[in-house]
Amino acid sequence: MNKQYINIGIAGLSIHDSDQLKHQLYAIFPQHFNIQWKSASDVNLDCLFIHERFFDTEGIQKILTRRALPWLKISKDNQQSGRVRNNTLFLPVDDNQELNQWIDKHLVSHNGLNESIEYAQQCQTQCFSDFNLEDDYFKKMYAEDNHEKLHLYDDLGTIAVIDTAQNIAWLNLERQLQHTDASFKYDFASIEDMTHVSRKHPVILQDWIWNLFWQTPNFYQTVPEDGHFRILSWPKPAEHLSHKQIFQLSACFIQGAKISTITEQYDIPLSTVRQFIAANMASLNIKKINLWDKHYTPPETHEPTEEKNFVQNFFSKLRRKFGF
Fold first, then answer.
1. How far apart are CA 127 and CA 86, in angstroms?
2. What does the pLDDT look like over 74-90, one tens digit per residue?
3. What are the residue ranges spanned by the domains of the chain?
4. Residue 133 backbone phi and psi in degrees, to 5
5. What is the rounded distance in angstroms from the CA atom of residue 216 to the CA atom of residue 220?
6. pTM above the 0.85 mark?
7. For 131-158, b where at least 16 C-beta lie within 10 A, e where not — what string?
8. 4-108 in CATH: which number?
């Protein structure tokens, strides 16, 4: 039987809850279905699961009004675990019977389901194919002649309003996610946009945007797999992040370094090193350097002193024994 591909989006859930929901959906769909995980804004989306906190956001409402597709809000209630009520699925899903019935009614048995066959090797993760940092996407955002406030947003709605001249950002405090995705955009801020952010507690723009994109999955795709770079200053990671690896990368790239060299020297995944470079590009804290510019030099590996002394003593005994 030919594989039938179905495009499902999950928006606003934590990584743990998203993984649990995916596990249930894999178990429910018949084997001839091949689930493709897509962003909420994907034009080929067949179904969408949205955290209830984000359901009324401008981005989600635009998607649902633009297209008639099956959707479920996601809520947490242990007493209603696994139930589907008024288009709301309650987590955790200990019994998937009602979810199974909903899937069967709206997707598996639905005649209008998009049955287009796609190649299995198509990107199943959110891709940043529209981003090209070489085209000065973020440089334009920070342009010195730009004296307007900018609205930063994605498919889940407003992220922040920023003032690049003052290097500050006003955040949407109702947004719990501390990352974005490939639907990220910016535009001039309107009066209405300002109503979605809190102006009581501004944050330093460059530090905040570094953390936003460091935590954004797959953002490393925006930079090449290798290259020579130097960061201009040490990033300031948020308190909840693991600082050790970030400081290790910072110590290398503050001197100027090659991506592949750092990956091999410290056994750090290539995607992590590229993510570091990408986050610094987004915060305009990095520049490309040439091969002949000053670089970080990996420490030389020296033979341990004890082993070296043992070898020297061994050959000394041989010389004495044989009269050399």
1. 33
2. 999 888 888 999 899 99
3. 4-108, 133-288
4. -65, -20
5. 9
6. no
7. bebeeebbeebbeeeeeebbbbbbbbbb
8. 3.40.50.2300
